[in-house]
Amino acid sequence: LPPAEAEALVRALQGTELRDTGGQGWLRQHEFVEKLNMHGILSASAGQEQLLTELLVTYGKIPVLIGELISVEIWKHKVFPVLCRLKDFKPRSTFPIYVVLHHEASIINLLETVFFYKEICESAEDSILDLIDYCHRKLTLLVARSANEQAAVLVPPQELQKQAETMEFEISLKALSVLRFITDQVESLPLSALTRMLNTHNLPCLLVELVEHCPWSCWEAGKLKKFENGMWHVVPPEDQVKMTKLDGQVWLALLNLLLSPECQRKYHFDGFNKSQLLKLRVFLTDVLIDQLPNLMEMQRFLSHLAVTEPAPPKKDLILEQVPVIWDHILKKNSGKWEAIAKHQVKHSFSPTEEELKLQARRWAQTYSLDMMEALAPDKPRCRVCGVEAAKRCSRCRNEWYCTRACQVQHWQKHKPACNLMA
């Protein structure tokens, strides 16, 4: 995006009412978020995300984005189940509902891109408590997933169920990254935020569960698969002990929460917490420490913890702040879930054919093929033989081929889709 357009989009971000979820104004806001998200990814890959960071801080938009994140989460758990039980709810509603689910993914992805910077974390102010709570809920879902309990994503249309479950998993992984960036700033966090992470949610023990169960890694047909860059990959035997980015996020968060002097003064090292933390010792192998040398300090800390009784934490905080956004949305809409659902099924989730076509054209402009190719981590492959491709169908611009021969060979299969796309 040109700087002026990026600034205009940031300035246009504003909080929306839960009742308006899926409506025309809300959809425009989603387009703004999506464009900023893609801009953030491309800027970060070029090392030029400072402008977006400065804009979000200058115009105070981080609390707005966190508010939108919490609003969608509450909508999913409070309004959506009611919506599904209404007689007027039709299959045509699938498209806008998918957009609502995608809105959460876009926001958490944008936050992951910018939360690397201390200024962003500080500009969140009191809304950081809501974000910490949000990340805690998502990490709990990850732990539940690793215990073979599927995340509860209630999406009635069968074709959306698998997509929604995959999206929920990826959102939870992004939340893990955001949480790790928050823990990088423990020195400048408000006292209540630190208390919430350490004692209210006991994040150190939750992170130990993630180290133990590693939900982004699984064995399938005798092969180890790991989730990286949005895909499951088979890991060759020689790379099976290699630390992934997600493994690194967990260990770095643990380092921040356990080795910081401020955290050590506030954390309850009671019998249960101590026994959970000592489980980490078995994972701290020489191979792992070679990949992340800072873990040597963690190893020394755990050895010391095993033979000593840490002093009880200082109780210096009498009043504890509570998350403002979550409580505000719940209080404002409590008892109105059915009324909100009826309003939304009438105004947001029963689009006409013309409205769907208009919205589809808007998405086509937002998600241009050139933009999607720039965001894709891998180079295109030939539809026929799978080798790297440099040519694509000039009519629909949707299929790639390595040679003219492969394109001709595939034409009879490709023709119906090509006609439809054109």
TrEMBL record:
PANTHER family referenced in this protein's UniProt entry, alphabetically: ZINC FINGER MYND DOMAIN CONTAINING PROTEIN 10, ZINC FINGER MYND DOMAIN-CONTAINING PROTEIN 10
Domain of life per record: Eukaryota
GO CC terms: apical plasma membrane; centriolar satellite; dynein axonemal particle
Species lineage: Eukaryota, Metazoa, Chordata, Craniata, Vertebrata
Gene Ontology molecular-function annotations: zinc ion binding
Domain MYND-type: 382-418
Organism: Tachuris rubrigastra
Name recorded for this polypeptide: Zinc finger MYND domain-containing protein 10
Entry keywords, A to Z: Cell membrane, Cytoplasm, Cytoskeleton, Membrane, Metal-binding, Zinc, Zinc-finger
Family: Belongs to the ZMYND10 family.
